[in-house]
Amino acid sequence: MDLRQLSTINALSDAVTVCEYQGVKIIRIIHPMVEAGISLHGGHLLWFKPEGEKEVIWLSENAEFDLKKAVRGGIPVCWPWFGKAAAPSHGFARTSEWSLSQHRENENGVIVSLTLEDNQETRDIWPHKFHNQITFEMNAELKVSLTSTNTDTQPWSYGGALHTYFNIANINNISITGMGREYLDSTQAGKECQGSDVLTFNAETDRVYTHPQSMILIEDQSNQRTITVANDGDNAAVIWNPWQQLSISMGDMANNSFETMVCVESTIHTPTIELQPGQAHTLSTRIAIQH
Predict the structure, then answer these.
(1) What angle do CA 250, 244, 196 make, to 5 degrees?
(2) What is the DSSP letter of 11?
(3) CA distances, 271 to each of 42, 53, 150, 157 (Å)
(4) Of 143, 203, 198, which Cα lies nearest the Cα of 175?
(5) How many CB atoms lie within 10 A of CB 242?
(6) pLDDT computed for residue 200 by the predictor
(7) Catalytic annotation, residues
(8) Average of per-residue pLDDT across 154-159
(9) Cβ pair 135, 145 in contact under 8 A
(10) If we measure between CA atoms, which residue out of 135, 163, 12 comes closest to residue 25?
(11) Which of 56, 229, 266, 289 is most buried (most C-beta within 10 Å)?
């Protein structure tokens, strides 16, 4: 996206401004420590760049800003299910309009929180009452926390993911560790597989790692940096790269853009989380850069 096309709607503070891009409202953060953008459509972080660093989060150059679909890249919020467990795929949170609930800043960084609650449209898809709050804590690091609260009179269960797209220099020159060895291979209809401690890429990769460590490392050798991904409240880590053939089939991805991205996702897969009335659960991911 061309940030020069952002039109300012309302300056909320020195660092936080409400903008608009192709009809989508975006919270823009410009702070001495960090620049970032968060779409109210989907509660979706679009970019995150700490001072002195290259972009950490990948956003497709062909991303479509359409209020009926999720933006390709950033951190889509998959909720209240992951994948094709029901329709729509990955749930409705990533295509719902979230509300800005609070923003705070000081010399150490910026915190922005958005909320999403059930309405008639969501209840037609998923017949439960809920309150979701997603909080973005941004400075040299990024922490994203999605807290789901059952505001219904009956228990319900949910899954989902913080579907983070990472910006890398070259998919052929990265390695990932900390994801564990056991995974379900979605390119083989969910077949249970055993891998090695180090993951490299030479084909389409779509895996649900079922016993990840709390810290996953992306060694981005060409960018001379390591991206650390610390997940909490999850029970799986999804790692995805579509490779070229699938990229070509996607209208919102350039044909070779698979070379500069990889997804490492904090995921609630199986079993899903059951919440009693009044109960809450938080799924989070913390992202930092090491040199």
Answers:
(1) 120
(2) E
(3) 24, 37, 18, 9
(4) 198
(5) 18
(6) 98
(7) 163, 265
(8) 98
(9) yes
(10) 12
(11) 266
